[in-house]
Structures are given as structure tokens and as C-alpha cells.
Amino acid sequence: MEANTHNKGIFGSESIEARDQIVELLTKAYWMEMETVMSYLAASVNLDGVRAQEIKESLDEDIQEELGHAQRFAARIKELYGVVPGSGGFSSEQSFLQPPDEQTDVVHVIRGVIKAETGAIEHYTRIVEETDQVDPVTQDMVIDILHDEQGHRRLFEGFLREYELEGLA
Ligand SMILES: [Fe+2]
Ligand SMILES: [Fe+2]
Q1: From ligand 1's centre to the CA of 103, what distance in Å?
Q2: Closest-lying ligand to the alpha carbon of 33?
Q3: 10-40 tens-digit pLDDT
Q4: Considering the entire predicted model, what is its pTM?
Q5: How would DSSP label each residue in 40-106?
């Protein structure tokens, strides 16, 4: 029998349902990060041209950061008694971040990154809401990651703005 301590929070037996729900949300977040790693890695190598260099370097840095996010989501899944899925559970969703027809098409990649970051921001905002008063540790972690994604999106919005001002987007 489980000792009847008053407040085990999200780890309590009465919180199994809430915990499962959070693990599900974290698993989706984990996959989003893993797919982002794949997409950013490909784009950071594929892009061609003088104008692409800045974008490539920025994406190259982001790869490690997004991988770090995936690791944090994985660790939290484990802490909440979940199991981090194997690659068999993966299905891609970033149709908008597939390599463009022309590898000089920087704008395609910039828009794709903004869309990926926006998707992450929406999902993580939902996790922050759903963990409110329920699992403050997950909430705290996700707020931190959400902050990173907001920074990424802001950076790429700036890149897009520059292309728009020059009539290239
Ligand atoms: Fe991320
Ligand atoms: Fe990001």
C-alpha cells in the first residue's frame, strides 16, 4: 500500500490521469524538437549562396539548442514515469520545412523556421496552461524552453523583415 502522505502532487496515485496527460503533451513536444533538429540540420547544410551564410550559421547553432530541448523533454517524461518513445513512433509534420526546389531559396527556409517555432510556441503555451497548479516543475521547465523558442522566432522574423524590405520576400 502506498503511504497516505498528504501531498505528492503530480506523483500521487490520485494524479495518474493528469500525469498521463502531461506525458502525452511532453511526448508530442519531444517529437517536435526531434523533427526540428532534422529540419534545421538539413537546411544548415543545404542552403547555397552568399545571403544564406547568416541563416546557415544561425540554424547550425539552433540544432544544439533544439536537441537540448528534446533531452529536457525526454528527462521529464521519464521522471513522470513515462517512456521516451523509439524512432518507430515518429511521424513527420513539418511538410513546410522540406528542402526547397532551389537551395538558394533562403526565404522558404526562413518562413519554414518561423512556422516551426510558432508551432512549438503554441504547443508549449498549451503545456504551460495545462500544468498550471498541477505540475509546477514541468510548467517551469516548459516556460524556459518557450522563452528560447520566442527568441528563435523573433530572430527569424527579423531576417524575414530584411528580405521583405529588399523586395525579396
Ligand atoms: Fe526547441
Ligand atoms: Fe526553436
Answers
A1: 24
A2: 1
A3: 999 889 999 999 999 999 999 999 999 999 9
A4: 0.93
A5: HHHHHHH--STTHHHHHHHHHHHHHHHHHHHHHHHHHHHHTT-----GGG-----GGGSPPSSTT-H
